[in-house]
């Protein structure tokens, strides 16, 4: 099939493009051309900006595609643009949402699509969550009216190009601190359940939805099915690197006070359990069988970091040092505060 990917240069998009090519599809990417595209002569690229709505509409009307995968749909306005541009002209529109769109706290764990509701609070501490939810509400109304739209919600996903790994999103800085024997901050006690998903697995969901009529009018989340906890990521890295990992613990509230923008993701998303029931997507996309373990995925991530992305953010590294100093100072202050 002729598949258009809006975006195509992000962490997940690259894996989707690779899977689409492996499945024999003809792939075109539409993006602003600011990042390198997958190194394949089989991929065509159209340069443009979807936020220039009129130019986007006119450019796409000159093209013909069977399926569109929209990886850069963040707001209701983006969704309306895609609907105006493609519905009636393509067989299917697949939209990437996010598990961020779910209302917190969850109603049940593991999380199921038919139980949860979308974020209802426009003053949410994580505004992007409400934007995604509003985008979905708009699309789901059209889906109920019979439009061939599929929504897929990844959760926290890692892979080549990842730029948000670690409690402080330190990226290679996590690996560097382990190498140097420096302590790493962990929010809470580190035992919050979480499924770490890797890009080749999530790509199976998107590619498996292409032209799959069972997915028309449906919305899904798609994640790893391995049950781990947050500190497992750091402890597994230590085993991979052959180093002992020293963790110190601070609440997500304290980390929000230290660096509010940096730690919004902890407060809104990662302080809640991240275990998902994939029964629905496995029913409709039989090829979706997540198979990359946390250890395998982190080995691949470390290999990429050390080969290509081995730079440390000095600001975040200094912040982590200061957080450790504050942590040790607090322990000293409260030592023996209650006499036995």
Automatic annotation (TrEMBL):
It comes from the Bacteria. Pfam families: Epimerase. InterPro entries: Epimerase_deHydtase (IPR001509), NAD(P)-bd_dom_sf (IPR036291), NAD(P)-dependent_oxidoreduct (IPR051783). Residues 3-212 form the NAD-dependent epimerase/dehydratase domain. This is NAD-dependent epimerase/dehydratase family protein.
């Amino acid at each position: 099939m002729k598949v258009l990917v809006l975006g195509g240069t992000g962490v997940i998009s690259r894996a989707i493009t690779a899977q689409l090519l492996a499945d024999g599809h003809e792939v075109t990417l539409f993006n602003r051309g600011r990042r390198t595209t997958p190194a394949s002569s089989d991929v065509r690229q159209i340069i443009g900006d979807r936020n220039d709505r009129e130019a986007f509409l006119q450019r796409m009307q000159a093209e013909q595609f069977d399926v569109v995968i929209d990886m850069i749909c963040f707001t209701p306005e983006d969704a309306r643009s895609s609907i105006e541009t493609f519905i009636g002209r393509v067989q299917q529109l697949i939209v990437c949402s996010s598990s961020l769109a779910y209302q917190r706290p969850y109603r049940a764990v593991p999380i199921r699509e038919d139980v949860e509701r979308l974020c209802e609070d426009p003053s949410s501490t994580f505004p992007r969550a409400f934007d995604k939810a509003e985008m979905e509400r708009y699309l789901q109304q059209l889906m109920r009216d019979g439009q061939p739209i599929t929504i897929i919600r990844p959760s926290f996903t890692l892979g080549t190009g990842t730029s948000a790994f670690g409690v402080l999103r330190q990226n290679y800085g996590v690996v560097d601190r382990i190498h140097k024997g420096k302590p790493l901050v962990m929010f809470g006690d580190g035992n919050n359940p979480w499924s770490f998903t890797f890009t080749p697995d999530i790509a199976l969901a998107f590619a498996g939805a292409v032209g799959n009529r069972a997915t028309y009018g449906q919305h899904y989340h798609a994640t790893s099915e391995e049950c781990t906890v947050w500190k497992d990521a750091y402890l597994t890295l230590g085993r991979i690197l052959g180093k002992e990992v020293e963790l110190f613990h601070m609440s997500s509230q304290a980390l929000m006070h230290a660096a509010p923008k940096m730690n919004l993701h902890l407060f809104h998303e990662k302080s809640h359990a991240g275990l998902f029931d994939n029964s629905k997507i496995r029913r409709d996309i039989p090829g979706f069988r997540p198979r990359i373990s946390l250890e395998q995925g982190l080995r691949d991530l470390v290999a990429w970091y050390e080969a290509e992305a081995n730079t440390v953010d000095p600001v975040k590294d200094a912040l982590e040092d200061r957080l450790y100093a504050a942590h040790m100072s607090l322990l000293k202050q409260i030592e023996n505060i209650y006499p036995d």
